[in-house]
Design brief:
291 residues, alpha/beta, Rossmann fold, 6-stranded mixed beta sheet
């Protein structure tokens, strides 16, 4: 039985994200993600004005006069949402947690995809694979996707992007557009990221909270790592403590950006305290210009 508050959240997200898709993102999604290329349709007799390079020489030789191959654009895509539901995603110092932000982002992308007649699939992961939803179409399927992200009660607490990306490559043999929604609090997944980037069109959506990058000066604070359970008490009035914390956060972010560049994977940074549509629309416009 699905809790009533989860169903209420799903409905709220559907209303909010549908508006975003209709007003802002729908047309851009269509223009940016154009399908896998050209698909063979039929062979027909050559007509004056047809391109010579389209001639099918095997069929031409068989019938003694020229035939050409006709192609059509293969519009349909598979969109995979690889969503981190580890314990660190429960954190949020503003209006929503990183997990709630991931659910909204997933809904925006999924509703954009089904408007384009694309299939949407989901991998929910922690330090293990928590759930896999086979790619399908339709509004009911997308609502299920959002519901599963919100209602997921994972067994694991840690993060293993290595396992998530390995699993993606196993279950999704054909090329897909893959959005990885995570705070990327993990290391050692460089190789799997590069491999996934070669097989799929991978876009990393890095979810960040301002309190994970900078401590407020509020006195003694007890900090706990949600994934490992490690605890520490820090004096936030101490400037050196705050500077060290901020410096380590910047170093982690710089290393992450470098990893995405090396793997040739697009990277979009999205924060819990700002409108997520701004960086998303900015990325879509940049990608459209690049294409």
């Amino acid at each position: 039985m699905i809790p009533r508050e989860i169903l209420k959240k799903v409905r709220q997200i559907e209303i909010r994200t549908n508006r975003e898709v209709t007003d802002v993102l729908g047309g851009q999604y269509h223009s940016v993600f154009k399908g896998r290329g050209m698909e063979f349709e039929e062979v027909r007799e050559y007509l004056p004005g047809d391109e010579v390079r389209a001639i099918d020489w095997n069929v031409t030789a068989r019938f003694g006069h020229p035939f050409i191959k006709k192609f059509k654009e293969e519009r349909e895509l598979t969109v995979m949402l690889v969503v981190d539901v580890s314990a660190s995603g429960q954190f949020g110092s503003g209006r929503q947690s990183k997990n709630e932000l991931a659910a909204e982002l997933g809904a925006v992308l999924a509703f954009s995809a089904i408007r384009n007649n694309d299939n949407v699939g989901v991998i929910l992961f922690t330090d293990r694979i928590e759930k896999y939803i086979v790619p399908k179409k339709g509004r009911r399927h997308v609502l299920r996707v959002v519901r599963e992200i919100l209602a997921c009660q994972p067994i694991g607490t840690g993060t293993s992007l290595t396992r998530a990306l390995d699993y993606l490559n196993r279950v999704q043999r054909r090329r897909s557009v893959t959005f990885v929604l995570s705070d990327f609090q993990d290391t050692g997944f460089d190789k799997q990221l590069r491999l996934a980037g070669k097989r799929h069109d991978v876009i990393a959506l890095s979810l960040r909270d301002p309190r994970e990058e900078e401590l407020p000066a509020v006195g003694l604070l007890e900090l706990r790592d949600a994934e490992t359970g490690a605890q520490a008490i820090v004096d936030t009035f101490d400037r050196h403590v705050r500077a060290t914390f901020a410096g380590q956060a910047k170093a982690r972010l710089a290393a992450l950006r470098g990893m995405f560049r090396t793997a040739s994977v697009d990277h979009v940074e999205i924060r819990t305290d700002t409108d997520y549509m701004r960086p998303l629309v900015k990325y879509f416009r940049m990608r459209e210009r690049r294409a």
